[in-house]
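quick one: guanosine-5'-monophosphate bound model?
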Amino acid sequence: MAGRKGPLFIVSGPSGSGKSTALRRLLSQTNLPLKLAVSATTRPPRPGELDGVDYYFWSRDRFERELAKDSFLEWAEVFGNYYGTLRSEVEPAREQGQGVILEIDVNGARQVRQRCPDAVSIFLRAPSLETYKERLEARGTENEETIQRRLARIQTELQCASEYDYQVINDDLQATVDRLAEMVQQGFERRNHA
Ligand code: 5GP
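yep, here:
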């Protein structure tokens, strides 16, 4: 609806919870005006990842310069790399009534909840710890040491799940996408009735 700010959604979940796949499918299936904010990161691209599409792949120098300019809505250090949401990816779109999804970690989510109390937060989790391991290995883009580091972090992240408005167990991709679509639809409707 014209003149109304678009809703903001935070989606978190440990590596291997299937966030990226579910969100990609959600975006390809929805008719709502919805975008996924492209984050900036200092981690190197994985094979197939594109600058400006999957992330803005920046040097630490560049990232720190933007931090100094207060360009980020939130940021965090994850696995030794910086990750952050640029205000420019979020605010102009919301002003035009577009819904924006942030796919960010638990620390970033806390910052956004404080700054944007109207954000709807969703925690996506795999059905079991074993599933995370299988999914990380199947991805085949990380070495064993990285996989072990990511697995260790999963336990910590799972402890934050209760901070979120909703938790979704991703054991069936299409069912998860359907749940996410309902939540997004509700986010738009709440805004229209606000
Ligand atoms: P990956 O390296 O697997 O793409 O992402 C690692 C972690 O960083 C994931 O938990 C992902 O949600 C998180 N992440 C990605 N972009 C951002 C961001 O802009 N801010 C924060 N705080 N976390 C992010």
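Residues 46 and 141 are 7 Å apart (CA to CA).
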